[in-house]
User: What shape does this take?
Amino acid sequence: MDQKPNAVAKGRRVALIEGCRTPFVKAFAEYNGLTSLDLARLAAKESLYRAGLRPSDVDQVVWSTTIPVLRYPNLGREVAIALGMPKVPGFTVMRACASGLQALTSAAEHIGVGYSDVALVGGTDSLSNTPVPYTKKVIDALQGFAKARSMKTRLQALAALPA
Assistant: This one.
């Protein structure tokens, strides 16, 4: 079986020039009010600042997540828009514990073959905002509670919750 040629080795050199991260904190603690996009935007802006780059220097955004949220199905694209780069393409990779390394590898491959010159790469997860799947019975009961107009109907909705 022939190996595929290594695009980076045959193409242009790729360099990682800067990075930063937000601190790890417990879920529902200091960063509870921040979404995955909020955290991504903070880290991305600081990385650009440290590297001496402007958003206009970036021609691709590659972002990773381990726990995607429905609100931001393509976090890479959302980061580009949040940084004022609406014409810059962005995509998201998900590969469990290797998501961040996959984002970096994907960006390096794109630079190596000439698809982009400067890629902004990162990864974000917010366990405070992780979607929690419930059964249909629980969802119906919670919706009934939210729509209830009296204490009696609220208590009836809560009574419908499975034990």
In short: DSSP finds six helices and three strands in the chain.
